[in-house]
Amino acid sequence: WMQRSQVKKLVVVIASQATGDTLERWAFDVHVSEEAAAAGPDATAPRAQADAVREQKEIQAIIRQITASVTFLPLLDEPCSFDLLVYTDKWADVPKAWDESDPKHIVGAIQEVKLRSFSTKIHKVEGAVAYRFPAEGGC
């Protein structure tokens, strides 16, 4: 889907196993450059080594930021599950075993922190984490 520029957003939802309530929602908006969209599959042709190194450094910076977010996110001290939500365009070939889902928004007061964005020649990815605030019920 990414190579065909069909992904619009990826969301990782962390929910309470006991209640099903969404505790954290990590959203990554994927924007496709107009040039890449117009070029089609050829836009994913091999990149220059310098581009690949730059992209890897940007992704590493995002991972460091996600890891550092542990300092401000509320402690999840109950069993949790996660769901991966993939928002695609209407032409994406979705596996039959996959189901449609609601957006699994957080109910109640939330805090949201924007994450550093990164871009390639094809995609720009902007992220944010939303979490329940103040934490209720020990979560």
UniProtKB/TrEMBL annotation:
Q: Enumerate the SUPFAM superfamilies for this protein.
A: The spindle assembly checkpoint protein mad2
Cellular compartment(s): Nucleus
> What's a GO biological-process term for it?
cell division
Domain HORMA, chain residue ranges per copy: 1-129
Keywords recorded for this protein, A-Z = Cell cycle, Cell division, Mitosis, Nucleus
For whether the record's keyword set contains Cell cycle, the answer is yes
GO CC terms of this entry: cytoplasm; kinetochore; nucleoplasm
InterPro entries registered for this protein in UniProt: HORMA_dom, HORMA_dom_sf, Mad2-like
What domain of life does the native source organism fall in?
Eukaryota
Q: Do you know which Pfam families this protein is assigned to?
A: HORMA (PF02301)
Protein family = Belongs to the MAD2 family.
Stated name of the protein: HORMA domain-containing protein
Q: Specify the species.
A: Strombidinopsis acuminata
